[in-house]
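Dear H.,

Thanks for agreeing to be a second pair of eyes. The structure we're designing against is below in token form, covering all 321 positions.
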């Protein structure tokens, strides 16, 4: 390693590094862990990638609680695989985040002490098995809208993790849609169960894209850095346009009377979710916030002996070597 070249007064090398960084971004090339990056870029990425990783891990809970109550062996196998995928997504993303100079232990601590957030959607309960289908269809569907553009994000490890994650998310969405389609072909009670579930999840799913653009102060900088590729409102519109025909094919009604095709715009018009409710859930007062973190903390404590054993094993292997 050579000495840092920017210790001279005036920091001429800093300007050079910044110019190089900006050129990489302008060319749509990737920034890699070995590259110099502005501290604010690094901090923004840590926040975004960590929040994403936490969402994958906390997101295992609402559906995980249905594994023991799946209605058939086939549904159980599908749900197990899906929930396991989410653990894998968390792992890729924590690893990507570690390349930015924070440890997994620090990130876990930030989550458990409420200093880093996870997606608001996972603070809603799952009340029926139809929710497993609705989450696959709408929640994983929203995740796909959000994440496909992130495959081209400017930070290499994050973008590469997203490529694999997106492939698995599309399986998640399809299994959810297939589950709902099966229920819609069933009894009146099953159809009513699907409709009730869609009524509950529609608005929280639209909230997943974050606040409206005029209330999202970080969007402009994140887009300039290529961390984010589309605005919240653009992604929300994309989700609505994609979902309306799917709802029609399914035979469910989306709970928004203002929803209609706008010929002029070439998009569906739709109502805004309740942003006060969103602020409440983000602020820790959603229906399941306390439960989710308590469960995560318990799992973390229960796993302490595994971490200790793995560390002891690694140390002994090193000694032998
Ligand atoms: Fe995922
Ligand atoms: Fe998923």
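And this is the sequence the design step returned. I haven't edited it by hand at all.
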């Amino acid at each position: 390693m050579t000495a840092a070249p920017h210790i001279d007064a005036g920091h001429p090398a800093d300007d050079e590094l910044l110019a190089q960084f900006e050129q990489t971004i302008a060319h749509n090339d990737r920034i890699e862990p070995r590259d110099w990056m502005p501290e604010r870029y690094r901090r923004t990425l840590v926040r975004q990638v960590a929040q994403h990783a936490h969402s994958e891990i906390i997101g295992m809970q609402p559906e995980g609680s249905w594994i023991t109550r799946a209605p058939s062996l086939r549904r159980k196998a599908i749900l197990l695989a899906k929930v396991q995928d989410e653990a894998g997504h968390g792992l890729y993303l924590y690893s990507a985040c570690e390349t930015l100079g924070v440890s997994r232990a620090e990130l876990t601590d930030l989550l458990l002490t409420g200093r880093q957030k996870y997606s608001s959607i996972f603070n809603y309960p799952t009340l029926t098995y139809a929710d497993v289908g609705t989450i696959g269809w709408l929640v994983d569907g929203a995740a796909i809208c959000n994440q496909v553009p992130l495959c081209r994000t400017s930070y290499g490890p994050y973008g590469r993790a997203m490529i694999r994650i997106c492939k698995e998310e599309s399986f998640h969405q399809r299994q959810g849609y297939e589950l709902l389609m099966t229920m819609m072909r069933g009894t009146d009670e099953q159809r009513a169960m699907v409709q009730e579930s869609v009524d509950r999840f529609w608005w929280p799913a639209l909230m997943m894209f974050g606040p409206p653009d005029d209330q999202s102060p970080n969007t402009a900088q994140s887009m300039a850095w290529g961390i984010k590729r589309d605005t919240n409102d653009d992604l929300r519109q994309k989700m609505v346009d994609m979902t309306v025909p799917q709802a029609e094919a399914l035979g469910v009604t989306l709970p928004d009377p203002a929803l209609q095709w706008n010929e002029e715009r070439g998009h569906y018009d739709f109502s805004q979710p309740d942003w006060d409710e969103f602020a409440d859930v983000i602020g820790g007062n959603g229906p399941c916030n306390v439960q989710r973190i308590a469960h995560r903390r318990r799992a973390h404590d229960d796993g302490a002996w595994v971490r200790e054993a793995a560390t002891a094993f690694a140390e002994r292997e090193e000694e032998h070597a």
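Two observations from my side: Residues 56, 86, 89, 165, 169 surround fe (ii) ion (ligand 1) (CB under 6 Å). Residues 264 and 316 are 69 Å apart (CA to CA).

Warmly,
E.
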